[in-house]
Amino acid sequence: EVQFVESGGGLVQPGGSLRLACSPSGFSFGSADMSWVRQAPGKGPEFVANIKANSGFRGYSDSVKGRFTISRVNAKNTVWLQMNNLRPEDTGVYYCARGTVPDYIGQGTQVTVAS
Per-residue confidence of the chain (115 residues) as pLDDT tens digits? Predict the structure, then answer.
């Protein structure tokens, strides 16, 4: 059974930082590309970032490029999303997902950016 343990969401002021973590199980993490997607209130899902299995390539949406960093340590079965200089429009539920075209998605963690 594929499962995701996500953590790190919360309430932060504009300009602040958060670090999301995701530790999946039930598949070979070291062989899987991983993604973060988000969904803002009243909007559809939006790609945020992805990372290849060997960390050789990382992709970002234009809206987060230069502010967010995706990383992973395969030996720890964990992928992170470091989010800096957060803006109110970054508010939403952030989901960890397997694949660059996700086939399994976690339960999500809420990120709220507000003063």
Answer: 999 999 999 999 999 999 999 999 999 999 999 999 999 999 999 999 999 998 779 999 999 999 999 999 999 999 999 999 999 999 999 999 999 999 999 999 999 999 9
> Per the structure block, which two tokens stand in for 18?
């958060």
> What letters, b where the CB count within 10 A reaches 16 and e where it falls short, cover 56-71?
eeeebeeebeeebbbe
Exposure on the CB side of residue 84, measured as CA atoms within 13 A: 6
Going from the C-alpha of 105 to that of each of 14, 27, 88, 89, the distances in angstroms are: 27, 13, 24, 22
Amino acid at 70: I
Which positions ≥6 away from 1 have C-beta within 8 Å?
A: 26
Residue 113: φ, ψ to 5°: -115, 110
At residue 86's C-alpha, the angle toward residues 16 and 50, to 5°, is 125
Instruction: Please give the radius of gyration of the chain, using alpha carbons only, rounded to the nearest integer.
Output: 13
- Residue 57 CA to residue 76 CA, distance in Å, equals 19
